[in-house]
Amino acid sequence: MADITDSGQPQVSRRQLVKFAGVGATFVAAGSVAAPAQADDEQERGRGSRNRSWRAGDHHVHSEYSGDFDTSVTPPRFHKGADAVYPIVTNAIMAKNFGLTWAMCTDHGGPTHSKVNLEQAYPDLLLSRKLVPEVLQFWGMEFDAPALDHHTLMIPRHDDEAKMLFELESRFAKRDAFPNDPGRDTEAKMVEFLKAAKDMRQKPLVIAHHAARSATGLGVYGQDTPREFRNGNDAAPDVYVGFEGSPGHQAGPLVGGARGGYGSHPTYGGFDQMTARVGGLWDSLLGEGRRWWITATSDSHVHWTRGGSDFWPGEYSKTYVHARQDYADIMDGLRNGRIFVTTGDLVTSLDVTASNRGRKAAAGESLTVRRRDRNDVEIEICFRPLKGKNGNGVRPEIRRVDLIVGEITGPNANRDADTNPTTKVVARFGPDQWRRDGDEYYVRHTLRDVQTNLYARVRGTGTNEDEPLADGKESPWDDLWFYSNPVFVHRV
Length: 492
Fold this sequence. Notes:
CATH topology of the domain at 14-347: TIM Barrel
Distance between the termini: 36 Å
CATH architecture of the domain at 14-347: Alpha-Beta Barrel
InterPro entries: Pol/histidinol_Pase-like, TAT_signal
Shape: globular
Largest sheet: 15 strands, mixed
Protein name: Phosphoesterase
CATH superfamily of the domain at 14-347: Metal-dependent hydrolases
Number of helices: 10
Number of strands: 22
Structural class: alpha+beta
Radius of gyration: 22 Å
């Protein structure tokens, strides 16, 4: 259980916040930016006695500890603020102001950075937890994954969390060794890292960042490949659990750049091609029955109004987890797929359930359908639009909701497979097909005579595009989407 909660905590004074925010930081005191309405409208949806609700967060945020190193001296000398500029507490303040209840600083590594994390960044995190107790602040980093692009390494909240990160970063991060050790930058080393993480009593989480940012075409991948995702997930299925469906740096077009920093091949509606392409890589992994989830993050370094290409944590992208306001339960939700993601606050809740003969399963869960029973499966989609205004000062409008279904056919002999030809948009729903009940909208669809194992997932948009188009220089605020994670159906 968490040692802090989001209720009954004293407010931090403006003087305290200014003192700890740091000189030169772009700073907004608590309460001076209106949080999206979901902070007030949050509805408890306890399943049984668990009393969970949808809680928004961001697991990919940078602080001033994403710096650089002077390697002309031994040991290397660390300089704060070279890549990202905000103190940890400033990020927490902004996360709170934009409606997040949990967040995580994921700073870049480098030669001997494990020691910087342990001796400098971690004490600042502890202070930030005290100053902004309304936001659960996880410890971890943007891990320099061997042979791959960056990944979230999220450490469970416990007394030895700092030592745990130090052990994993110092042993396995490919850039931590000084002098450089090429032997760390191999696929075998990544698998070794994941196996070591899996065997820890307190298991971390690993989630790939901007997975196709280095891709040069549709299906022409760069640093991260389908084979590597499969190998890592096989090695540690309860640790290596997904990738960013919607990467950060979404404010790029507002300053003349590309969304997500995807300069070689674009995102689609702000989502990585691995997620946005129906029947693409994500569906290929789900079609094997893998529990592989997507998230959405800010990757905040410097706000776009201050020369960067970023939004604040929670300002544009949110990862919602169905959980209690509790470190352990939020990690459990991330580990087990109780997640939906949205940009521009299109929705503040999204429940997708599959049911058959009184049995029901939600996102991340499995519904069992007995072969001797009637094989119709009822899919219910329940969503809540934003009641107030989003970070752009407008109330976004949902124009369509899509139900996407694919078959689960088992392991693919081709480790580089990136398609699932069975995956289809089986139904599209416009406003005239939604049933309203208070602040929520419902859609139901029956999958008739289900004869195969399958999964169902949902997406929605504020655009009129049937499929998300390749992104250009349009404002990200004009191209909003949300995605659920899948619910599984198995016949036995």
